[in-house]
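protien #1 (seq + structre)
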Amino acid sequence: MAFNRKAKLRDNIEAIRTVFTLDREQRTPTPEERAVLEKYCGFGGLKCILNPAKDLTDAVHWAKSDLDLFAPTVELHKLIRENSKDDTEYKRYVDSLKASILTAFYTPKEITDVLAEVLHSHGIQPKILLEPSAGRGAFVDSLVKHNPDADIMAFEKDLLTGKLLKHLYPDKKVRIEGFEKIEKPFLNRFDVAMSNIPFGDIAVFDPAFAFGNPLRKQSAKHIHNYFFLKGLDAVRDGGIVAFITSQGVLNSEASSSTRFMMMKQADLVSAIRLPNNLFVNEANTEVGSDLIILQKNERKEQLSEEDKIFTQTTVQDGIGISRYLSEHPERIVHTSRKVDTDPYGKPALVYHHEGGVSGIADDLRNMLGEDFRNRLDMERYVSATVQVVKSEPIKVESPKVDTPKVTQQPVVEQPKPIEKPAEEKKVIDTDTGVISSNAPVMSLYDLFNFTAEERRAAETGQKIKSAKGGKKGKSKPIQPSLFDMPAVPKEEPKKVEEVKPPVQEPKEAPKAEATSSTVDPDDIYATINWEDNPPINGFYEMMMDLTPEQRKELRAKAQARWEAEKKQMEAPAVEMKTEVPTEVEKVTEEVTQSVETPVAVSSDGTLSLFPDTESEEEKIRKKEELMQPRGFDRPLEPHHRDGSLVVDTLYNPGYLKDVTTYGAMFHPLDLSGVQREKAQLYVSLRDAYERLYTYEMENHEANDPQRGYLNKYYDEFVARYGNLNSRQNVKLIMMDATGRDILSLERSEEGKFVKADIFERPVAFAVDAVTHVDTPEEALSASLNKYGGVNLDYMRSLTDGTEEELLTALSGRIYYNPLVQNYEIADRFIAGNVIEKAERIERWMQENGEDERVKVSLAALKEAEPQKITFEELDFNFGERWIPTGVYAAYMSKLYDTDINIAYSESLDEYSVKCGHKNMKIWKEFAVQGYYRSYDGMNLLKHALHNTCPDMMKSIGKDENGNDIKVRDAEGIQLANSKIDEIRTGFSEWLEEQPQSFKDTLTDMYNRKFNCFVRPKYDGSHQTFPDLDLKALSSRYGVKSIYPSQKDCVWMLKQNGGGICDHEVGTGKTLIMCMAAHEMKRLGLAHKPMIIGLKANVAEIAATYQTAYPNARILYASEKDFSTENRVRFFNNIKNNDYDCVIMSHDQFGKIPQSPELQQRILQAELDTVEENLEVLRSQGKDISRAMLKGLEKRKFNLEVKLEKIAYTIKNRTDDVVDFRQMGIDHLFVDESHQFKNLMFNTRHDRVAGLGNSEGSQKALNMLFAIRTIQERTGKDLGATFLSGTTISNSLTELYLLFKYLRPKELERQDIRCFDAWAAIFAKKTTDFEFNVTNNIVQKERFRYFIKVPELAAFYNEITDYRTAEDVGVDRPKKNEILHHIPPTPEQEDFIKKLMEFAKTGNATILGRLPLSETEEKAKMLIATDYARKMALDMRMIDENKYEDHPDNKASHCAKVIAEYYNKYDAQKGTQFVFSDLGTYQPGNGWNVYSEIKRKLTEDYGIPASEIRFIQECKNEKARKAVIAAMNEGSVRVLFGSTSMLGTGVNAQKRCVAIHHLDTPWRPSDLAQRDGRGVRAGNEIAKHFAGDNVDVVIYAVEKSLDSYKFNLLHCKQTFITQLKSGAMGARTIDEGAMDEKSGMNFSEYMAILSGNTDLLEKAKLEKRIASLEGERKSFNKGKANAEFTLNERQKEFNNNQAIIDGMTEDYNKFLAVAKTDKDGNRLNLIKLDDFPSVDEKAIGKKLQEIAKNATTGGLYVRVGKLYGFPIKVISETSLASGLATIDNRFVIEGHYKYTFNNGHLAMADPKAAATNFLNALEKIPGIISQRKEKNEALAKDIPQLQELAGKVWKKEDELKQLKSELSALDRKIQLTLLPKDQSGVNDNNVPKYKDGKTKIIKTVHLEYKQSIKRSSF
């Protein structure tokens, strides 16, 4: 049956609809519904469903061939969206569809039935079956038919498919997760594992494969290999693994290690190759697959010859193939075979079966039958079935006891979890000893794997003596492990006050008997040797703190209490009394009634259903049975994990092991007396807490009954045993896997333990309800919090006002929105996409009539609409994702003069291009011929759409091995780039030519998508901040009132739920943060906010918060709190207490564990993107950048490693560390948020400078995890507030990362799903080609220009409150910038020449260092830039031993200026900051510029050394605060530091009069942070004594990079400021082209070092001219090539025409004389010369004789004629095997020589030989037809070639103009070489500067801006 896409899609939709219905109604499917479910086939072959399909307008993105599926796809997405509880779940479902597209190759039912039948017919009837990749359950269905009662476990990772599978097989173990999640208890268990497994280079993390055997570890990198080895792990010995897999398992050389591992532990039953058309009907895809069947053989010792063949590969038809299949071609199911390509375009052997699926099934049945008969070891399969070890424990009964076993079956069968109330725990501890038998009995010794000697030492209280060499002596165990059968008689402990049985004492411990009587048998802690046996889970860290005497005293007190209680219990039965009805009492009552027997207390202290009348042997037997590991008989709860303490239904304490979805093993603990009771009560307490917290966290509602249980159990525990955190209790509690959580239920206050908040109220969500407010605005806030909107009834109840009064008071603040039929706040209503909102309201009014309220609302929306951007104002990038692909296709069709189709995949962010017919424009005009391959117009079109360039290589020779020495083909890359630029720039010109209606449509689309946002005007003036203590703020910080800007920002954050506070340094961000956090908490907008800041600032933040809100409960994390031993407790305090705010540093925040599940999802999404990009690259073949491919491979590997670690953490999470999600934090305030800018992202632009590290930092990744946790909880963007004066610190590309953090949903709405999509819209990439000194072209790419900047700014400002200090009105001094010009010293002059020579030659020895390494060679200019920076600071930075001090170096100048300021403001004790990121102070680490300046200040200027400090000297926060205080007091006058250490968190501005910059930082933000140390509020000395100015002195050495770099930063900062403020003068800006990663380019570097800025202009002109001349050369080369091709084509056309004319004449002549018989057949009237016979057969024989014997010497010799056409023969001589051979060929001649069969006669048939020439003449029409077709094609190509040959290079005028400018500039430069006059001005009219002059700033700045203007606009 052919693949019907529409029918398949309809079947899938109905199946999914049925799944949702069954989920909703919680029932099993009806037979009809089951039939619908069974039609589900996944979405393989339906890639179109990934296209946008939200509404009808999305149809423009669809290809015409897919449009018939558009409507059902819209229906599919609507169905899923309606059945998703939130966007997160919807995305999971969509991801499920996406995964289904890539992996849905469902096995046809006929094939699964054959497999099941063959197994059944050969006696294999599996009772326990594994399906590791079940899909829709085809294998399960086939196997169930033969064995309905089989225990089946099926894994399916796909969410939708897994849900469907669960409904199809509700009675089977269906698990919606990956096969790697299978637990250890299920290994070596299954009879059969059968599946169609996934395949691909997808890594799987499995701890069992991650460590140990490297071959297993390697197999886990490919999912298909992993499945085979894991499948073999899962089946028992003799079990069957039957997997359908990709051909890669057998064919790939990389899988050889996996095949070896398969053969090492299994026997091959069958290996069959299936045809490629197997999945055509299911997935419309042809893909090769293999069926491999293995039988596990654990006793296999070596590989057979056939096994070895199975592991090997060979080559067949040039293609790698399994050697086994090569030698057994009969194991390939097929009817035809050919060499073709696989779905990835790689060569492959492709097999087809014309019989379709049914034919394949028949052949497969025969092959499998033969293989099973010959290879299946049935004896092993059956015998292993008998011997298989089941999960139930082995029960050992004593042979001496004949008493029948007493069962407790009614109790065991209870399905409900049981909590034992306190009243039930009144049992008597008789202190009886436990007598052991040969049966394994579980005790604490077993729990910790004690050896026999360790047990004896524990019992005697003595330590084990060390053997020689320091090693402990070992002895054989007295008691066997729980999992070993006993082999020898065991030592039996003594029973107190009873006859002692004989004890068999081992020889190696003779002292045990003598000392055992001195040990208290009840002191279980004394029996453990802690030195040799480290505890699990941190268990009993303080176990040995109590002495044996203290423990004995405590036990004596407990014993006395129990004895007293025992006397009161005279009755044999204990009546069950409860105060609070619990599950345990209900179950116990049922048990009591069912057995009608009173419950008694047995002698061993346990509850018994029978009186204590059993014999001693019976008691021992029961005790032994009780200690046996067994299945846990209570339902597992979410908090249960390996190591959890539990009690079973008989209240026996123990711990869990091998916890799985379907149960766990219960390991009893041999506890008695107080410890047993304590453990029971602890479990009840722990369960009550876990259930309470989980319920309230998930449901956001209080659970008071459960809280009652928690208090009850806690109170009882404390009353009996003391506080949880007391030492004796910690020992027991830490034994539990989640014990740390329970310890945090108490917190310490004033030296006492008190209950945590969770005992009183929920801590997982906000519970405080607002009951009254003072103003309508506060009522509005309360309504927004409680209901998420405006609820007038609720607001009226809070204010006691009428609705009309509220509406009047809130006029202009709220508007009626008819679309939601309710009022909305203005900040929400008049916000966002107002254009779309207004249109929807207008449609509503047309349908529902006018409404006065709606009119007001609509008018407000209309008034707020942004001014439309016209077509002329827009900049268009070729490849912007929002532009319909049809527009690009229309443009390219015109450009290429042929039909071009372009499609775009959103999920892959990938364009694909197709062409119906290629022509000369594609082959020639827009093509580049590289050394190894050619790139035609279609290749370059794809690069143009993605804004990339092909990475072309060429060979420059051979190495010693004969391999090509490859280098980049710079000339080819440049030519390709110029053609790509021609495509991209031509797009804008083509748009200009389009009709106005088209332009209007495109402009409207843009305005709707990007120019539709309105930022609300946030007015926070009405806020009163009820709890704020302004008096305290005033007295401590001088804050007398709140700035209006602070109020507005807090209001914005409250309304939006977060955002960006982009306020300049010193404008009060700290107070904004504290007020916003407290207000959010007060109004319930956030339940538990967290503030994080720099380590240097965080203490001040906490102090500010406590000052502003004295009564607030804040948790501030000190360094001590985050010490290793206290960190976990601190995390639990956050979780279990209801703080108003939590405050910690960035570093401390990084130590909070993030939710592993969330990390896994985010990293998996990133990995999916990387893998998709890799698939796209591989599909492009060689048309990719190898560096990019390698980079993506590395990134994929790194992500896989991270995922492996996270998965391992999740799998083995047995500790109790609280993660961020569990803490309940629901809003983050991130101070100095630019510290987290280095976030990971994916990009194709691997060679673009300035993008940063795409892998990002772990610090930024942790922040992303935390914010996503909050966003998932709220279902909205934001969820965090970023605060920084430098949110954009260096480049506008950082904007994308800000949006990725805070606005992921809005980016997705704009069709921006990755960085490349963002850059395609808002950035323009520049590619500069310059010639270096070796005459090589160097390519440098950068996102230098940004377009559509106003819309970018609007998107930023929508969530941002941006304020400068001037906006805020901060009373702070002004900044007075001074550029202190320093002439170079002679040493610097000399070194500058060396630097220039180094830049030219790359000879590093000139600089006095070793030659450059290969790696350093690539970074030569960065090294040169770094040397230039060091040289400008001080020559001793380069070599402190070679160079000496100089009075004119920068240190001397700086010291002099510092001393001047020191003396000038000595009376006021004015202070100064000195910044340098080079030469920082490092104690004991040689010379540094800090110490040098300090030396000069003290020695030369007499400044006391105590008044000069370095911030690096402060090793802790206390020392740092002391220095800052001393600066403010004036006792420290000069403070040195780097940007990172002194640039933030230092409020020492009180006396600052000057700031000195010894160097210039790389980022504008760093410069702003530096200046902000003094230019800020609170600077009293500058305000009153320095003219309200702070001097900022920048030291610049002439001919260095100082001035250039400083002005570059100024320009960049100007652009960033304009973007933030929205005050853009243009729609495009230029960022400049220098950065810290690549340094300067060669020409600019040489010009700057020369000291003449005109040379910089000259260098730029020369670079541009060289680039254009290279383009012209390439153009002329292409034009010459076109002219040559045109001539060749013209000649070919003319030649063809002449041939056509001649042949036509010959054929007409033939037709004219040819004769026919009566049937119309032409007669063969051949005549041979000198041969009279006309008999055709005789003539044929004669011709054959001539063919054998003729020798014409290479000349044509006539032998006859036919219809007047001469027949000739020619002898051609050739050499074969060294011998000369003659080949005679015949022709019939007209205008041309015609042949048949290439002139060779039929030597076996004389008659056929005679007709050779008639056949040749009859071929003439066919030849004429071929020539005509060729000429028709040439006729189309020739005009295009003529056009190409006649093209004129368009940039000739530009080149002439540039050369003219260069000549003029050369003349100008020559004038500067004339002798200088004495006026201080040279002939170039360039001012000469002296120290302290400021003109150079303006001059250089102006020249730089002019150069930008020339290059940008």
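ok now protien #2
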Amino acid sequence: METPKLPCPPQSLLGCLCVGFNVDVRHPRLFHGPAEAQFGYKVLQRVGGGEKWLLVGAPWDSNRQGDVYKCRVGPPNTNCTKANLGTTMRAAPLSSAPASAPGWTVISGRWGPSRLRHSVSGGMAAVCGAPCRDVATPCRCQLRPPLAGCSTYMDIVIVLDGSNSIYPWYEVQNFLSNILNKFFIGPGQIQVGVLQYGERAVHEWVLGRYQTAEEVVEAAKNISRQEGRETRTAFAIHQACTEAFSPERGGRADATRLMIVVTDGESHDGEELPEQALCLADAGPPSPQVLGHYLRRQQDPEDFIREIKYIASDPDEKYFFNVTDEAALNDIVDALGDRIFSLEGTHGYNESSFELEMSQIGFSLHLLEDGILFGTVGAYDWDGAVLEESRRGRIIPPRKAFEKEFPLELKNHAAYLGYAVSSLQLPGGQRLYVAGAPRFQHKGKVILFEMGTTGTVTVAQALTGEQIGSYFGSEVCALDVDGDGVTDVLLVAAPMYLGAQSREMGRVYLYRVGQRLLAPAGTLHANKKPQDSRFGYALAAVPDLNHDGFNDVVVGAPLEDGHRGAVYVYHGAPGTLLPNYKQRIEAAALSPTLSYFGRSVDGQLDLDGDGLVDLAVGAQGVAVLLRSRQIVQINTSLTVEPPAINVIQKNCQRGGTGAVCLRARVCFRAGTRARGQQDREIELRYNVSLEERTPGARAAFDSSARRLLQRRLELSLGRQSCLRFPFHVLDTTDYLRPLSFTVRLAMAESTGPVLDERSPTTIRKLIPFFKDCGEDDECVTDLVLRATMDIVGSSRQSPHVLRKGRRKVVVDVVLENKKENAYNASLLLRFTNNLHFSSLALQDTSPVKLECTALPGHRRLCSVGYPVFRSLAKVSFTLELEFSCSVLLDRAEVTLEASSDSTEATLEDNMVQLSAPIRYEPDLFLSSDANLHRYEVHPLGTFPHGPGPEFKTMVKVRTYGGGGGVGSWGVLAHLALPPGAEFWEPRQWGTATVVPVHPEDLLHVDRLDCSNAWCQELSCQLGRLDRGGEVSIHILRTIHNDFFRGAKFRSVKVISTIWLGVPESSMLLLEEGAHRREVGDPRTLAAPQTWGTGLYRHPPSLFPPFFFCRWCLKSSRGSGCPSPSGSWWAASWGGCSSWH
């Protein structure tokens, strides 16, 4: 029964845009049948007598005889009715195709899994005509068995030992049930009778009494043991030979006769067995199978075995079975079936090699222009073959016809040639037959060949599979893409091809048909997910589904999605088939209960009356009918007035400000190439948008102040409908990039037509801004930038020196446009970190506006004449920058770069880079102080021994905080401290040679300094000095009394020199002599009438070289340097360095 499918939920417009295919998956029609009968194994569309049908094969129906169901495509709730072909054909309808005559259908069949495990028939075909449309009566079909099939027309009599020695009896009953289930019992097929014997013989039932296997098995269960003390086997065989096969007891004169004897021991009338053997021989072949013998009570079986073998058919190893007890009878059921199979299947007496007896004609078929090509997979010991029945007559190729491609030494390998058949029409008019052999050498083969009227075969080409077990050639499909009568493509399926993760993904090979040979053209692409799929299990060429003028192909994959299945649709193209699928129809989208969807496909006819081809798909117990939908083309045009946006001339008011207003006109026209209703109305959904997916709004619709409008429209095929959409442009900085206006459309109906995949669903128009830039509408501008800086400095040797009171730099800038308009012109200012932006002032009365905004990293971006810097315009301005007091760099750089959204003619003059070397003159103050200004030396003899008193000198370096001063670092404080050791020896000090004053000449010198005494020099690195900061240097020295004991003097003033300096690489510059100070050390006085006497080769120093140096930083927020202490002095050692 058909099950209606609920419509899918509505989707958004963006989710329902044209997807390029037209098989409707939202409204399938599902026809249900018995799943256990394999309903859905094959599907076939059929039209006849004004009715439309879906024929569905069920090969296991009617006790596995097979049948066809007729499902009328009409009212929603239509039942499928059995055609009852099985009672006539005794075969399962596995292959079917519409015949060339209208109203007729060819149905071919073979035995499905029959009552004998291997038993199959030669097959047959039926041509069923118009009477099949009457569901009340069986179809009248003309049977056309092309060959005399393997005979199952057989009478079998089982001669059963029922004497007392048979025990347990139920094991014998089980054996009977099992073996009887192997027989294909029915009218015109096998008849079974049972004769039980002991001392006497009884006919339990005669031949023909029971018509089905079920009835015979039930009767076997009710057989009671006859019992008896004697086993009269010869007597029972005589009764069976003379009575059981007689016409009076149901025997058929033309049926093959088979006797099965089941006994357990030596007979009591064994001497009569040779006579009965002669009787059997006179009755004609075949001789009976003889079963039996098992040991009981340790009796010697040799005589019995010799007895049974005597009456059994030869050779004994094939027709004699020996079991140990009644329970073991069931172990030989299959072997017994094989023996019966060979008896009924071969023509000659005791033969075992088959020719055409098991051809299975009808396993596959292909309609020719003048006949039918059948596949006979069972022919020639399952090597397979083909058979043609046409106007040329019946053509049966002999076994040797295929010997070149299928060598005789491989005859037991079961190539299954004829598993799939087809034909090709070559460009020159030549016709080639195609036959697949999926088991050939386990990889499969497809041959293309010609066949003469005598059965001769000429193979033109052979295609071989690439993977063992892939079943290459199990399906073939020839496709005439453009319908010109010449085959363009051949598809060959290998549905069991192992893909990723060793999954049976399947593969379909594509071959292009040339003048005489086929060329590989890749494979069809399916779902890439690693899964069991069996893609290619079913193939079908279908008429042009998408109305593009090219025929298409449908491929089944029944194991995809966990055996739920899927079907793929591939579209044709000029001379080929597109390898990427256009639609994947998964079973889950149709019904949650579908399984093995895609096991068969067919699509040739229009079954729903809309003039379009529909698709039939078989599943497990279900046949699915999918309608194709009309394809329409929507031609959309879009115009905008005015055609450009003039931002200089506002033409309307929006939101209280001037704006540019425009109006868009959108027109739709619908058409179709498909047959069917040409005057129908379709419903269209569409949206219009401004600046789609672009951040920042530059325009909006007048009706809603939004950028997106969604609408519906009723549209007639062949007619045009137009709509208008007014909108306005907002103020924006982006005037060069065109404004986009977009129309997106989709069909509103889920059951109606679909958009052609080649019909655009998105139409976008770019609306340019009016630029006033000539006929080409391309603005080519030439921005020329000039700039000068008021500071000079050519090199490091002659830098620009920054002094107190002069901390600014002025840049004069001129920018002009010498060509066409420059839109969104801008000037980017970049300057080094030691400069700060101060001001920008226009120098003339030019109407050009200049607006600057700060950017990160010492940059300014200035818009010039927004929105357009007109042609031949010019602007001059002054840029004032101020030097940083905290960041000192050795160069000051200013970079200016002009740009616009227009095309620049010459980029070389768009950038100016100004640079000058910089040195800084710090504002430093140097001062000093000492805590001992006078030291009096006592007369000779009263000098204390050891060092004299300690005295301290403090030097301060201070930076001024006001007046724009800069901080300093890298300043060195130098101290020259006289006198030192080796007092009188000449030494080099600076650039002069110093000759120290001898101690005895001190009477004539009133001062000691570095010009007449050797000086010890200290150098201290002051570190960073911020504005208002202070550094103190403390020097601790000791007066050495021993010096004065050997000196002659009255009064000596010792002068130390302090000066500041910087390294040559420093950015600081100190004026010569501006930072030098003399510090008076303690004046030394001799006591009256007392002179120091004595000469020393190495007199001691006045101030020994033992000293400490300390510096501290005093900031404007600090409280000064700490007071010296012992620990502090020790910790400060090394702050300065000294040398002689």
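The mean pLDDT is 78.
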